[in-house]
Structure formats: C-alpha cells, structure tokens
Amino acid sequence: MQTAERRADKNKTKNEAWRDPHAEAYVRIENVTKRFGDFVAVNNVSLKIFKGEIFCLLGGSGCGKSTLLRMMAGFESLSSGAIYLDGQDMAGVPPYDRPVNMMFQSYALFPHMTVEKNIAFGLEQEKGLTRSDIATRVTDILEIVKLESFAARKPHQLSGGQRQRVALARSLVKRPKLLLLDEPLGALDKKLREATQFELINIQEQLGVTFIVVTHDQEESMTLASRIGVMNRGEIVQIGTPTEIYEFPQNKFVADFIGSVNMFEGTMIEDLPDHVRIKSDELGSTIYVDHGISAAPGAIVYTAIRPEKINILRTPPADTTENCVKGVVKEIAYMGDVSIYLVRIDTGKTIRVTLPNVERLSDDERIAWDETVWLSWHGSSPVVVTQ
Amino acid sequence: MRTAGARTGTRESPGRLGPIWTFLFRYGPPRWTEYVLNNWSGQRLVIAIPYAWLLLFFLVPFLIVLKISFAEFSPLGRPPYEPVFQWLDEGALQIKLLVGSYVYLFNEPLYVSAWIYSVKVAFFSTIFCLALGYPMAYAIARAPPTQRNIFLMLIILPFWTSFLLRVYAWIGLLKTDGVINNVLQYFGIIDAPLAMMNTSFAVYIGIVYSYLPFMILPLYSNLEKHDLTLLEAANDLGAGPVRSFMRVTLPLSMPGVVAGSLLVFIPAVGEYVIPSLLGRTDQLMVAKLLSDEFFLNRDWPRASAVAIAMLLLLVVPIMLFQHFQNKELQAAKR
C-alpha cells in the first residue's frame, strides 16, 4: 500500500534537522514575550522549527500556545522579542503580507461563499494568476482533500469533517511554506479524528509544508508531531520527539501531563555512575534504577513510573526488597483493549497499573476487586526527575 | 384536542373556568365559546386575538377606503360620495364602481409629477441615510461593549422628543434669519443668507435626520452578529483591510442594508409633515396631495384612490422586505 511504503521511506531518511547544530531553522522564535496588561501570556519563549517538520505546541488551557501561534500569524503584536520566518524579521508585517497561512479552530469558512469560492479566495488576492490557473489549483486541492463533488456547496450544507477539510484546502491552496493549525481536530469525533490524523500527515508529506499545530490533546500531538513543545504558563517546558517526551520527561509537569504516571518522592541512598537506589517513604520500599542520574547529593528526587511498565503478580516475586510493593486492588476499569487497575499500597498511596487484555479470561481467572497483589517493575522503567 | 376539556369542560360540567362563565352568562357558556375552548389549541387562541385586532382595525378600514375609491364624488353629500352598494326596492343589490378617480391620478400632470418626486426624494433619502448610517452602525458595532450601549442610547434619544418639534427645530436652523445663516454671516463665510427653507434640500435634511435611526438599528443588529474570525481568515489569506471589508463584511451585511433601506424608503414615500413644513410649495409630495384632496376639496373618492395607489406602489418593496426578513430568520435558525 502506498502510504505504508511512504512511511517506511520516511523512517529511513528521517528529517531530524534539529539534531544538527549547524542546520538553519525555518522559524526562529527568539525571547518572545507577550503581555496583556499585567498578565504574561507568553514568557520569554525561544524556539527553532525546521523545514518539513510537524511541530506541535502542546499544553492545557491558558498556557499561551494559541497566543504564540497568533503571534506567528501576525494577529498579535509582540511585547518583546522577535520572530523570524525564513530569515526575515516579521516585526510590523501584517498577516496578509506573511508567507504563512492559518487553519482556524472554528474553521472560519465564509458562509456566503461556496466551497469553491472559499478556496479560491486566497488565490484571488495573489497577483499574476489567471482565472483558469485558479480553477485548476482549486480542483487539484479538492482532489487532495477528497471533496471533488462538494465544490458548489455552501458551508452550512457540509458536515463538520467536510468543513474541516475545506478549511484545510483553503489554507493549503496558496502553497504556504508554513501552515499554522489551531486545534485542527478538536471538533471531530474519535473515529474521524484518527482517520484525519493520518490524512493530515500524508498531505503534509505530499506537499512538503512545515506544520505548526497547537493542541491540548496529547494523543493528537503524539500521532501528528515529529517534535512536541510542551508549554505551561507561558513557558516552554520541554521540547522533544513524542518518544523522548513520553519516555524521558525532564520534569514533574511533563511526566504528569503526558499520559498517566505514578510519581514517588524519595532521596537517593546510592548514587553510582551505572545505577542509583532511591529510598521512598511514599512507596514504602527502595527503587532501583539501572542508569545513572545527575542530582545533588541528598537532594529530593521524584521517580516516575508509567502504568504500563508495572506488572501485577498474584504471588510475591523472588526479590521483594526493591522495585516491588504489595497492595490491594481497589478499582478496575475495563477499557476493552486494556484494563486499568488502581492498587492501594500500605502507605496509603494509590498506584495506577495498565494491563493489556491479552487473553480472554473468565471472571475467576481475572484479577478481582480487593485482591492482594504484588506490583513489580524492571530497573529500566523508572524515570527520575529533580524538579 | 380533547386535552382542553379538563380546564374548560362542557355545558353540563363547566370545568375549572366554569364559575367565570356561569357568572358571565348566567346560564353557562354559549356553545360557540365551548367549541372554541374545546377544540382550539392554546396556540391558535393566542394568535386569534392579534389576528382579530388586525382584521378589525386594518383590513376592514382598508376595505372601506377601497370601496370609497370606487365611488362617485358628490360635493354636497354627507359623506361626499355616492353609495357604492345600494339595495334597490326590487330587492336587488346595485354595485357602482367608478375607475374615474384612478384614471385621473395616472393622467393628471400634477399627480404624475408628485409620484415621481415622492419616489425620487424617498430614494435619494435612502441613499443618504445609507451613506451616513452604515459607518455609524459599523463604528458602534466595533466599539467595546460598554461604549456600545451609550452610543445606541444616543441614537435613540431623539425619539424621546416629539417628531413634530424636531422638524420645527430644523425650521429654526434653516430659515433665512435662522441659526445657520446667522453663524455663517457672523464669521464672514457668506455675505447674504442662504435660502435653505422650502427647498428639496431642506426636505432631504429633514427626512435623513428623522429616519437615520431606522437605518442604523437594523444595520447595527446585523453587523454586531458578525464573526470577527472571518476577517482574520480573510487577512490571513492575503486580503488587506479594504478587500476584507468589500468581500466579507459588506456581503454579510446585505440583509441589514436591505432592511434599513426599506424601513426608510417605504415610509418616506408617504411622508407628510416634513415636506409640509420644510418642503417646496411648487412641487408637492403625494401625501400632501392626498391631504388636500381630502380636506380642501372634500373629494373622498379621489383621496382614497391616492391612498390605494400609494399602497400598490409600495407593495413590491414591502414584499421584498418580508422576503429578506424571512431569510434572516432562516439564517439565524441554523
């Protein structure tokens, strides 16, 4: 299948320009701050985004990601700092003069124009395009978003997913170098969202446009992005690939924000280059981590263990002194593909464990409420953060 | 609709409203009220009241005027027209319809020029109201919400004073020894006073001044509902402020423009007070002619014919207005 081949190719020659210290960034955001009166929406953000990336700004409500996007589009002025697009300083450049297009969260389709006219609107503002040029490009982009037969309809005659594709077509038809997307999949239902995610990636690869996506949905960012920038309270907290963000969070906020996590506060009792041991009162036992971490001696550290990396055992394992704890199953959530177990341990803390439902088990074979179980994990599973 | 029965009941068991009916009619409700209360849904009942009002105070008078317009003028009669419907001794009904009044209207140069003049004045007044009113409505719609209320109040404030007084005020401003002429002469801008009273110019000023709120309010109501992200989208796609206005704001404001224009045009055609006080004496508008025919000549048939003819003239604009109002309603439902 064509898309599978393309993704295999992509894996071979992956665009990892951010790893190259000499690579020229396409978008440079340097010390950008935005204040609304006393409220600081964006606090000294610096970012480099490279050509051909899908970069995701991920964060909760009010973290400043939409403000940052709007500043890139030209709808908000900067309180301080500078934004460079393709080497050009965008200070004072109005949105209609920027080589950037935006796809709005509400789609903002012109209600009094047909789909065709909506898409052609951007092209009509450009000089040097004849009527037939415009018509050809509109037809081409309609094919790409698979809306060929909807050209004569008006927005109110379309479903939510179709409107989303018209908005996408309208923003892509001008062949911008940079496309900004504000919560592009927010209004779609789950199945449509999944399908559209992959379509978006395909279209991006096909056209070679750089995407910057703003979203609060972690799944969306994990699927779409080549790199994610996690934002909190106007600041960038961590930048990395989805794997890096998920497996190697650099602080408590990122660890907790992405997916679920079990966090244990503790102090290091053994600090060696190839392993550490952490004593945690919250856990009630010792944590053995099989890699070295850099932390000040005696400092408080936080150990994060993902729910899927914990095993539930009905009989105690051989070694119960470290990376192991006993508990009672308090809640079970059956999600179909996985089951989530909330296990209360002796210290009173509740640990979240996710197990895939690999086999079809009968009720007595499955782990039940109020059953005493042992939780254990491998030494490579914990991630230790210091803040 | 038997559900009404519990409240209203029948003659035998009058139900909850029974005591009232019994008191009113002493022997229980008459059968037709029973029928209405038992068989008509509440919705129909509620509509029936304004419907009856409109029938009694609009349709019936209209039909009376229509009838008189076909009557023969009899100068000494009271009322001054021959009866249209007459019961003859043989028991036959005689109906006499004369179209002479209408024929006269469409042929008499005085009337024809008055029609044309009225429509012209109303048309250009509408254009001026639009030119002045659109920027004002736009400014109010884009102002911060707290200021908006103040601006709207300022627009409506003149309605708190009498319409007639406001037109008289314009006489004070426009007359030869009025405020405007005195000020201009004082500052040496003009040597001799400008003749502004009793001109078309004065009529335009009067109509535009009086009808401007009718243009501003529907326009504001439309503009205020606009989605401003549409303008951002237009900007993002390369359209500057002017282009965005022309291709997004203006088309979307058309229903407001039409509503405001018709709300100015339709009454302006039949405007009486302003041309009487401020207008020309050599070129009259239709309403003045109607008043003269009725009060001076006492020619009721001809006056009625003028009224009916004016209505026919305005039927098309009125239907347009209704059509656009319905479209707005449909659009608002979605």
Characterization of this structure:
The complex is a heterodimer of chains A (387) and B (334). Chain A has 387 residues and is an alpha+beta fold. Chain A has two domains: 18-252, P-loop containing nucleotide triphosphate hydrolases (Rossmann fold), CATH 3.40.50.300; 260-385, OB fold (Dihydrolipoamide Acetyltransferase, E2P), CATH 2.40.50.140. Chain A has helices spanning 2-12, 65-73, 115-124, 131-144, 160-172, 190-207, 218-224, 242-247, 252-257; strands at residues 27-36, 39-49, 54-58, 80-85, 88-89, 100-103, 178-182, 210-215, 227-232, 235-240, 262-271, 276-280, 285-289, 300-305, 310-313, 324-334, 338-345, 350-356, 372-377, 383-385. A six-stranded mixed beta sheet of chain A has the order 6-7-8-3-9-10, with helices on both faces. Chain A has a five-stranded antiparallel beta sheet with strand order 13-12-11-14-20. In chain A, strand 4 and strand 5 form a beta hairpin. Chain A is globular, with a radius of gyration of 25 Å. Chain A starts with a helix and ends with a strand. With 334 residues, chain B is mainly alpha-helical. Chain B folds into two domains: 2-95, no CATH class; 100-333, MetI-like (MetI-like fold, Orthogonal Bundle). Helices cover 71% and strands 2% of the residues of chain B. A two-stranded antiparallel sheet of chain B has the order 1-2. In chain B, a hairpin with a 5-residue loop joins strand 1 (85-87) and strand 2 (93-95). Chain B starts with a helix and ends with a helix. The model of chain B is unreliable at 1-6 (pLDDT under 50).
